[in-house]
Amino acid sequence: MHVPDGFINAPVSVATGALAAAAVAVSLRGARRELAGTGQGGGAGAERTAPLAGLVAAFIFAVQMLNFPVAAGTSGHLLGGALAAILVGPYTGVLCVSVVLLMQGVLFADGGLTALGVNITDMAIVTTVVAYGLFRVLVKVLPRSRRSITVASFVSALVSVPAAAVAFTALYALGGTADVPLGKVFTAMVGVHVLIGIGEAAITALTVGAVIAVRPDLVHGARGLTAPLELRTSPLTAADAAPAAATPVPAPAATAPRRSVRRVWLAGLSAALVCAGGISYYASASPDGLEKVAHDQGIDAKARDHAAKDSPLADYSVKDITDPRLSGGLAGVIGVGATLAVGTGVFVVLRRRRNAADARPAAAPAERA
Fold this sequence. Notes:
Blueprint: H1 10-36, H2 49-64, E1 68-71, E2 74-76, H3 81-88, H4 90-108, H5 116-141, H6 146-175, H7 182-214, E3 230-231, H8 238-245, E4 249-250, H9 262-277, H10 289-297, H11 324-368
Antiparallel strand pairs: 1-2, 3-4
Helix pairs in contact: 1-4, 1-5, 1-11, 2-3, 2-4, 2-9, 2-11, 3-4, 3-5, 3-6, 3-7, 4-5, 4-11, 5-6, 6-7, 7-10, 9-11
């Protein structure tokens, strides 16, 4: 659903750019809390979000290269807003998808640069807000279990994709450059993206379910799923049994083991490299949902050449490498590495700034003393 330059006019592109910038600024503040493990739902898992957030961005980049067929002559790919929000939190999720879109636009000429605000608004903000809002509602009404988290992930991801299609239609109604009946755009976009949403839901549920199966503490949306450990005193006599059983003693926080995230991180990175560097060669070559609708409705007549069309990585291939398998695979690996580096750098800086801000008030009394 990457919108190229020329589909949306300049005023609406500027307005969505301002909206995207404001949302990213808000997300930077919110992500500092999520990455530092403070605020609602904070805990031990939150303290380990920073090294995983960059990996989530890289994984989304990789899986977006895997277009899957959804109808005759049409393909779809992961948007990633639901997956990112559930794994690392909604604010951090917006930043993850925004980093992916930035890397795709600058390095691979995928998604217009003047349309970057449109793409962030549609693919990062709308999908994340809709998916995470619905996810929280479902988690509250469903039974408290890991399976419920997976089911909620599936449904929220499924709904987020046609929601993004509706958002694009609204933006096109405000600033579309082609004279196309709005009803046709709406029907075509929502229809095909409901089908794409099924693929998005399956990928999201499988990924979230896999992480929950081995490390539920690393899934932001699953925090609080496990009841706190309590120690009960053992009654020595019948007289002591009643009062002892009635007084639960919380386990000291210091006794909770700190488990390394290295294995999960390496497994996730390996999966991203395999997807981008190998499986992507077998992805569907059919146009994705937006490309197909734009071609059928004549919207693509207004598309402009991408400013980065001469990039050595344009169209997810390495310039001057003639073997398509090697060229595409190497481009995918470079993209995963670049996204991982930029994403991790951003999130580590955010967490350090938050930790430094938390340390200053604690140091102030000592200085006054």
